[in-house]
Each structure stands twice: as C-alpha cells, then as structure tokens.
Design brief:
7 helices, 7% helix, mainly beta, 22-stranded antiparallel barrel, 42 strands
Length: 748
C-alpha cells in the first residue's frame, strides 16, 4: 500500500461500471483535477489507482488489466473480490498478461504454467485421468482451475486463444477458491465484448511439424450500450519429432455485453472447444540404472486418441446499488468430456503379451454454479472499509468409465526404439459408467480490507463451505456418502511507510474434502475417496515485500512461505480403503518476482522459487507392511521429500523494443531434478528426472498499424528434457523438441 492509496467511495462506481465515453472522460477529468487540487489535505480521498485509468480509454483489443505502457506488468486482478491492486495484495501472485502470453509462443495453458516457478506437471496414470494435471508448490491443483472466478469443470485441455490474462495464486486460499487450493489456484480470464471499439483481427501461422493455426478476434459495437465479440480457433500440428502424436483443435468464444441502464450491465458468453489429439507417453525410466530408455512413441494409429470437448455458458450481472455498493452475480452451466486411449511400451510379459499397454478412460462432467457478491466501499469509524459479502452454490456431477481394447494383432513389439505405429489392429469399445460422483457445495464468505491509515492496511476473510458428497462405484458395488462443514480464513497486514513499497504478513488456510479429485474415483492415494477419511487441512504462513518502481511500471516482489498440510489421507497403490488422516507434510520456500519495464525499451517478467519439502508424519513409518506388485515392503516415508516437486525453478521472459516497429526477446526456463511418486506419498529413490534449461526466442515487426508478423523458435538448442513422470517410471513426458513458426496478423 502506497501513500496514494486511500480513496473515496465514489471511485467504486468508476472502477466497477462501464459508462459511456463522455461519462468516463468527465469522471477522469474530475478525478485528476481533484487529485491535483487537494493532494495535500485530501490525498486520501481521490487517487488514480482506484480509478483504473487503463479502462477509460483502452481499445477493446487491449489489455484491461495491464499497467498502461508496461505490457508485461499486470496492475490488477479480474476478480471483483480482490479489491486492491496486485502490488497491495498480501499474497504471492504470478500474473501473465495478454502480451506476455502471445509473445511466449505457447498456446496451451499447461505449457505456460509448467514454465512458471513452483509449478510442475503430473502424468495420467491408472489412478487418475490423462489430461492437464497441475501441481503447485508440490500439491495437486488439477481441480483448482477457474475461469473468470468460477470453478471450471473437468480435466480438459485448455487453450489460450480466448484468454486475456492468467492469474496464479500461490499457497492455500480457500477464502477465495473454496475447497482445495492447498498449493494455490489458477484463474484464467477470458476476452470480453467491449463497447469502446469495433475491430476485427485475423492471425494465421505456419511452422515446423505441420503446424497450422488460424484465429479470429472480432468485436462489434452495435450501439452505444451493446457490443458482441467472437473469438475462433483452428489449429493442427504434430508433436515435434514424435509423430503420429499431435493435436487438432477448434474453439469458439462468443460474448455479448449490454449496458441496460447507467447502473446495470449484463454480459453473457458461450465457450465451445473440441480437441482431437493423440497423446505421447514418451520415454521410460530404467529403474536398474536410473537412466532414461528413449523409446519410440508407442501411439497406434488404429487405437489411440484423446478427445476433449467443452460447452460452457456464463451470464454475469453487475448492478451499482449506490455510489458505494455494488452487486455482482455470475451463473455458469457447463459440460465437459474427456475420452482417451493412450498406449505405452511396457515390455513383453504375460500381462502385456505384445509389449504394449493401454491406458483408457472417459469422464463426462456437468457443472452448475452461481456466485453472488456484494462489494461495499465506505468509511466506518473513520477508516475506509472495502467489504465483500457473498454466497456461492456449485454442483458437479461426473460419470466415468473405461474403454475395452481388444487386439487382433499377432506377434510382439521387439524393438521399442523403432515401433510401428500401424502394428495394432482390433476394436475399441466404450464401457458403461463404472462410477458416478456428485458434489454439491454452498459457501458463505465475508471479507474486509481496512485502510487504517496512510501506512497500514489490514485484510481479513472468512469462508464457510457445506458440502454433500456422493460416489456410486458400480465396479465395487458400493455407495459412499459424506457431508460436512468447513471453515477457512485468511488474514493479511500490509505496512507501507515508503511511497513505493511495502512489507506484508499473511496467514491463510484451506481444506480438501475426502474424494475431492473427481477423476480419481475410489483411488484413495490419488485424491479419490478414502473409506472413512475426513477433510484434509492446510495452513500457509507468508512474509513478503512488494515494490512499485519506474513510475509504477515495474513490480518487484519477494516472499518467504511455509505451507503445512495435516490430516492427509494416505492410500497405497489404487487402494480405496486408505489408512485414514494419518499424514502430515510441509513445504518451505522463497519466491522472487519481477514484472514490467526495466528500462523504457526493455520489458521483462521473472520468477524464481527455491523450496524444500518434507513428510513430517505418516502411517508408513517403517513398521507397517505395504503390499504391491513388487511384493511386501516396509516403507518409511517420514523425513522423505514430496514427489513431483522441483526444489529450484525459474523463468525469465524479456522483450526489447529496438525500434517503434521491431521488437525481439526470449525466454529461459529452468527446473531442478524431480522424483516420481504417488501424490502426498514419498518421492521415489529410483524414479528421477534430471534438471533442464530451455531457451525460446521471438521477434515481432509491425509493417503498419494493421499488419504485423511474429516469429517464434521454441527450444532453441533442441534440449532433450522431461516434464513429468509416472510413479513407476514407465511414462516420462518429453518436453517439445525444437520447433519454429511464423504468424501474420491483420487488424481491420
């Protein structure tokens, strides 16, 4: 919090409402005049940071959340419940702006997230689905993904063509995210219709590995108070050096906004996405030597597929009740599908007579959600209070099953380094549902940010979740039911005796319900239901500092943190019984960040995380027998590291504006070594991935205001690196090899 931060309640309307251009200009002029005329006595009443100058005159295809003239620095978050700028929020946030996303050259959310500090990926397994699986600070986050502040249903592939911003919150934050979020959560922000400008942008790209991509972004102002926007995508490419694996995707985001009155705005959007991919299980760990067996891709043209589909409809209503009270209501109805047959080489055995193994599954997700927020900004007892009171309802239903893969192929795969992709023949049959899961949640929350004085701001939040859980396992002929109430809180203090910097302290909690990872069914060790298990609990402590420099065009952050997860449900292998809430683990670390303009021509985004993990308590203490495919063992998890966890990770993206028309830059991503293992179990001693450093480059040239070209080279040095590993080592995801593409953009 800087000294310029205390504002009057009237600025709430300017921030939250979309007025006509004349009204906006008048409000802005009044604010600037008032600020200049009263900067001494009344500095606490009117300031620019609350007025959101960037919204007043920004083009519809601009970034409404970025700092003006600092394309890599996000100024604010999209969530109305986050009432202060990022620089004044007592929590670690990593935010990727629209321009940083575009210039990175990455078009999948998983690729963008895995490059960020403190985030790793997990593989699909027998115990959980194949799909985008994120791990934040060592904790599963595959169900902690949100779009525009509402939970996004299903384990699906997520594209960037319709995204404005990606917001990553680090550490437990159930006050905002609800159930889950032990390591943090991800909120993707979509492009929305805007009454400020009419435009149409078409972008087409070609590249290596048969890469083709076309996007359309058009915003049409129908009247002074109504606009529509359409984003469309078609893309097709092979995986670099790993054909026939690859992806083919189509997507549409259609949105409309209508300013019904000066105080009432209604918007709606519909998102449709379809993916027809073929996934690569990559290499395998040689558990005898610890090296990597660099197998050829085992994907079979006759059997393998990964089909994803999403249809999601959202309506948002914003109403200014008065100058200092605003109502926001969001309703979402969505359905997603994830279906796959993925083939891996396992070696010839009685279990796998051809040497190939199929992982199969399907999930149909249906989601209904509604969130209502009242935001009140007024003086109470001589101090500015920004109060958020809200209620949220969510209902998720998941049907899941498998595919039966019958082969008529004869013989075996004798050479795993040269696998015939046409070897397989036979039939693939979709099974009936083997399970149905439903979670119904209603949440109540209250938050308040109190500006005590020029130097001190205090945040407090409290959330109560009540959930009803039901899992019908047809394969086990069992029905599991659970219901409970969860209370979580968040406290933060921001102390800023300096004009451009602050220090803060934060305490926050989260809860994971038993069986909360809906793709895992009764696989207790993978976040599925553990018979008799209770909710898990997590607490985060954080001490940090944030500095707004270079005329607020550059944000520097640093934080030390400790996350402790207690009452961990421990399950062995795919066991549905588990051993109860017997585990405890901890992650400690430091995270550094930089975002914005380093010089007038050089922009950058940098993040680095240095962390350590430890299992503090476990049922498996060296005296308990554990039966598995390798026989009976007596593992001792206590004192071990967490799996799928990189102690050190960093990412640096730089952009240099050499001339008004030409800019170039690059990205460096580093990760230390990582071990495989079961979630919340112990890291494997034999299944390890080496560290890696990957370099990307890009360049852009503007021929005119309408026409520009961008070139990207991913993995410039063709580094062979690995991003995730199956707990037994038989699946090792390979980072994409070197690739190049050129995209031409034209704005009408």
């Amino acid at each position: 919090m800087s000294h310029q931060k205390m504002e009057t309640a009237f600025s709430l309307r300017s921030d939250f409402s979309e007025k006509s251009p004349v009204s906006k200009a008048g409000t802005l002029a009044f604010a600037i005049s008032a600020a200049l005329a009263t900067q001494g006595v009344y500095a606490e009443e009117v300031t620019l940071d609350k007025l959101m100058v960037e919204e007043q005159g920004i083009a519809a295809d601009g970034d409404p959340y970025a700092e003006p003239d600092a394309p890599y620095k996000a100024k604010k978050l999209s969530d109305a419940r986050q009432t202060r700028d990022i620089a004044d929020t007592p929590h670690t946030m990593t935010v990727m702006t629209k321009e940083a996303i575009a210039e990175s050259g990455k078009t999948e959310l998983k690729d963008l997230l895995s490059a960020q500090p403190g985030i790793t990926l997990g593989t699909g397994e027998g115990g959980n689905s194949f799909g985008d699986r994120y791990i934040i600070r060592g904790y599963e986050a595959r169900s902690d993904v949100f779009t525009d502040g509402l939970r996004e249903p299903g384990l699906i592939t997520r594209e960037t063509f319709a995204l404005e911003q990606i917001e990553i919150s680090k550490g437990p934050n159930s006050t905002f995210a609800g159930r889950g979020s032990t390591g943090g959560s991800v909120n993707t922000v979509t492009k929305k219709a805007n009454v400020d400008d009419t435009f149409t942008t078409v972008e087409a790209g070609l590249g290596t590995d048969k890469y083709k991509r076309v996007t359309l972004d058009t915003n049409q102002v129908l009247s002074s108070d109504t606009a529509v926007r359409l984003n469309m995508l078609y893309t097709d490419s092979d995986t670099p050096n790993r054909a026939p694996t690859g992806e083919q995707r189509q997507g549409v985001l259609a949105s409309v906004v209508h300013q019904a009155t000066e105080d009432l705005k209604v918007s709606a959007d519909y998102y449709h996405f379809k993916a027809d991919d073929v996934s690569d299980t990559g290499y395998a760990i040689n558990r005898g030597t610890g090296g990597v067996n660099k197998y050829d891709t085992a994907a079979q043209k006759g059997s393998d597929f990964q089909h994803g589909k999403a249809d999601i409809f959202t309506v948002t209503v914003n109403y200014d009740v008065s100058d200092d009270i605003r109502l926001e209501n969001k309703t979402r109805i969505g359905s997603t599908k994830n279906e796959y047959v993925v083939t891996a080489y396992q070696g010839v055995s009685d279990r796998f007579p051809t040497g190939l193994r199929n992982f199969t599954g399907w999930q149909d997700n249906d989601y209904v959600g509604n969130q209502t927020n009242f935001v009140i900004d007024k003086d109470i007892a001589g101090m500015r209070n920004t109060i958020v009171a809200g209620v949220e309802y969510a209902n998720e239903k998941v049907k899941a099953g498998n595919f039966t893969v019958d082969t008529t192929a004869t013989g075996t795969v004798d050479d795993p380094y040269n696998i015939d992709s046409n070897f397989w023949s036979g039939t693939v049959t979709k099974s009936d549902a083997t399970s149905e899961t439903e979670i119904e949640t209603i949440s109540f929350y209250l938050m308040d940010t109190v500006t005590v004085n020029d130097c001190l701001e205090v945040f407090g939040g409290l959330l109560y979740d009540h959930f009803d859980y039901k899992l019908e396992s047809y394969s086990n002929d069992e029905t599991y039911k659970d219901n409970d109430g969860l209370v979580n809180g968040h406290l933060g203090v921001v102390f800023s005796p300096w004009d451009h910097g602050n220090v803060y302290a934060s305490w926050s909690t989260s809860s994971n319900i038993n069986g909360g990872e809906l793709d895992a069914g009764t696989n207790c060790g993978y976040g599925g239901h553990c018979d008799g298990g209770k909710p898990e609990e997590a607490v985060n402590l954080e001490l940090g500092t944030k500095w707004n420099l270079m005329d607020e065009k550059l944000l520097l952050t640093a934080a030390i943190f400790q996350t402790t997860k207690d009452k961990v449900n421990e399950g062995a292998d795919y066991d549905g019984e588990g051993v109860g809430n017997t585990g405890e683990n901890r992650v400690r670390g430091i995270e550094l960040g930089l975002a914005g303009n380093i010089t007038p021509k050089l922009s950058g985004q940098f993040g680095m995380a240095i962390m350590s993990s430890e299992i503090l308590d476990s049922y498996y203490d060296g005296t308990k027998a554990l039966s598995g495919r390798g026989g009976v063992t007596y593992p001792d998890y206590i004192g071990a590291d967490k799996p799928n966890f990189a102690d050190k990770s960093a990412n640096l993206q730089l952009r240099y504006q050499a001339t008004p028309q030409f800019a170039f830059g690059g990205t460096v991503t580093y990760s230390s070594e990582m071990s495989g293992g079961q979630p919340d179990g112990a890291a494997s001693d034999t299944v390890k991935l080496p560290s890696y450093t990957v370099y990307d480059m890009f360049a852009t040239y503007d021929f005119s205001r309408s026409l520009s070209v961008t070139a990207n080279v991913q993995n410039l040095t063709d580094e062979e690196y690995y991003t995730a590993v199956y707990r037994g080592g038989s699946i090792v995801y390979i980072g994409d090899g070197r690739s190049a593409k050129v995209s031409l953009k034209y704005k009408f």
